[in-house]
Amino acid sequence: MKNNRLVIIIASLLFLAVVGCGPSVLPPMPISGSVKTVEGQPCGNALVVFHPKDKDRVNAAKPVATTDAQGRFQLTTFAVNDGAIPGEYGVTIVWPSVGGESSELSLSGEGKSVSPDQLNGNYGNPAAPLIKVTVSAKTNEDLAFVVDPKMEKSVTLDPSLD
Prior knowledge:
Helix content is 11%, strand content 22%. Strands 3-2-5-6 form a 4-stranded antiparallel beta sheet, with no helix packed on it. A 3-stranded mixed beta sheet has the order 4-1-7, with no helix packed on it. The protein has 1 helix and 7 strands; from the N terminus they run αβββββββ. By secondary structure, it is an alpha+beta fold. The protein has one helix spanning 2-19; strands at 32-37, 47-52, 64-66, 72-74, 87-94, 131-135, 143-147. It has one domain (26-153): Carboxypeptidase-like, regulatory domain (Immunoglobulin-like, Sandwich), CATH 2.60.40.1120.
C-alpha cells in the first residue's frame, strides 16, 4: 500500500514537471541584420530595440542591439546574441550623431537620447513604430532595415482633437 502511494506521488511529480505551471515560452531565435540609410550609408552605433506587440509580453525583456561600424547587429534578449522570442514586434532605431555630447541612449524613450538622433526621432517611438517584423520559430533571414535620415520630423496628432 505504501509502495502504491509512493508510485502515485512520483508519477504526479513527474506529470507536473512535464506539464509545467505556466504558459510555455519558445526560446529566442538568432536574429541578425543591418541598418542603412536610403543612400546605402551604414548606421554605425545605432540602437535597435524590438518591442513585443503581444499584450502578455509588453513588460518582458526587449531584444536589443547596437550596430557596428558597418551597420550590422545581432539581437540580445537574455544572453549575448541569443536573438528574439518568436512573435510580432515593433522596431525602434536611434542613430546618435557622431561627436555628440554623449553616447548614452535610453531604452524607455529611445527618441530622447542625449546626442542628437540622426533620424530625427522618426524611428524611435515605441508607441508608433515605423518598422514592424515577425520573428519566426523557424529559420529567420537576415533583416535589412533601410531608414531615411532626411525624412521630415513625424508629427503625432492628439486624438482628443478629432
